[in-house]
Amino acid sequence: MPRLALLLPLLLALPAGAAEPDARNLPLWEAGVGAAAFSTPAYPGASDRSNRFLALPFLLYRGKVLRADQEGVGARLLDTDKIEFDVGFAAALPAHSNDVAARRGMPDLGTLVEFGPRVKYKFADLGGAGRLRFELPVRAVIEGRGGLRRQGWTTEPRFVWERRGDAGRWTMEAQLGAVFGDRRIHGYFYDVAPQYATADRPAYRADGGLMLVRMGLFGTYRINPDVRVFGFVRLDSYAGNANKDSPLFRKDFGPSAGVGLAWTLARSSRRANE
Question: Does the global pTM surpass 0.70?
């Protein structure tokens, strides 16, 4: 997601046991609570930041097709040694325009949900040094603010390196990718309609194209079978953004960081491989 990405991975996908070496022998489902604190730009290219603390319940489900695990929420339609194809969701929290100087007096940015297919190609197993894969999600963006409305589409091709410690006690994952969007999602962030134009914020109509280039590092550590801590750091570059001329575009770079904890309270006796 372009804005408050990692909401689902932080509070749903990472908790207890999600990074065990043999996921097929894990419980079919696990449930618990998670909490996370994080700081991100209010939107891509914003000078203001959103600092949030969330505490939410989570449910992991490792069905053969339907999944809610460390890879996200959705339906896994193809899974081979090299290629995986699924349909999934992502989500982002809202940003209130009164808290963002550049958007003051404009409509709020609502909660966003993305839905669509993703292809993953696992192209290198480096043994003890980890594994490499390429991911290509293509997702429609739906805004929930006073009803549901489509706000365009995004795609985020990325390379992912992951490594796991013995028995899954710790994991590390690094990503390098770019986010592209159509004119509609760019307009959602960067359009200035004539009625919201001011002397310092002229009217503007956005174009589609590159939104950002992203580098990130993510890690987890299992304290005991029920408790796992996690954290991430990420740097987004907006230097090549298709709408740098928008009066809402204020910064070329946007760092993000977060930490959290997940506590599993119940799990099934039935295993995923059953």
Answer: yes
